[in-house]
Amino acid sequence: MYSTGNKIVFKNAATVILVRHSESAGWKIFLARRHHKQSFMAGAYVFPGGQVENYDNSPELGSYIKKSPDFNPARILQENELPDQEALGFFVAAIRETFEEIGILLGGSASGDFVSFHNKDVRARYTEHRRRLYASEITLGDIAREEGIVFFPEVLVPYAHWITPEFEKMRFDTRFFLAKLPPEQRPVADATELTESLWVTPQKALEMHFQKEIVLMPPTLKTIEELCAFKSIDELFAATANKEIYPILPQLCGKFVLLPHDPEYSIAEYKRPVDTAVSSRVTNENGIWKTAYYEK
After folding, report:
1. Which of 4, 7, 246, 258 has the most other CB atoms within 10 Å of its CB?
2. CA-CA distance, 10 to 173, in Å (whole number)?
3. All domains of the chain in start order, with CATH
4. 137: helix, strand or coil
5. What are the DSSP calls for 247-287, one per residue?
6. DSSP summary character for residue 4
């Protein structure tokens, strides 16, 4: 998880692209602003998420996980070499971080019904669970035992796998997941790591970014650009179910940050077949990150 000698070992992380239906706009994504004092991506609007903690890989959580017999987290992540417990840890971290950071809990009854926060007493109880979980006073297992709930890793659909490039001081090996907003829950940023938040269409998020109303960093920018292609949540999830997922390690090259499918990308371990039909590089112009296409 950390540097060993001259070998860089990244910190594992998980992030969740939370989506919901919108009567007026079809569908929207949830973004929250990182606190301006954060050491990583300060002030940027991001999807909720964070580092995989040791407890996320704990076998103790096994009895609090609702999963079908054929649920294989490593296979679903398209990383068959990952040990089962480590692969499951990404799903658990995504559930924990989503609850800690924005109060959305991807869990509920053994029959598959999500926890409802419609009742104010239930909502208050889980708000306290959230506070104590963030403060490391309790674990997800403690919450599951006290509330008689289980967690739903299968509602998380792997979407992408990004690795922080070498020119950044803090480096993470992050799995991106899609998830639908559970009924009778609504996100509330924690005001510690994340401050302001918004529901927005992918197209509007890009517009706000280019107008300097919000800041999007390259992985978020590229992801949102891809999301613009989908007219509905059903279309998005159907396409993602068949999506090839591979590690994306951006490479700095002059004024551009290259992605693995760019013709000039040269990190052999991560290089992908060339595809010039989609944007394959990112550049910063006047303080705004923008995607760009390869030009001969």
Report:
1. 258
2. 6
3. 11-243 (3.90.79.10), 249-296 (no CATH)
4. coil
5. EE--EEETTEEE-TTSTT---TTT------SS--EEEEETT
6. B
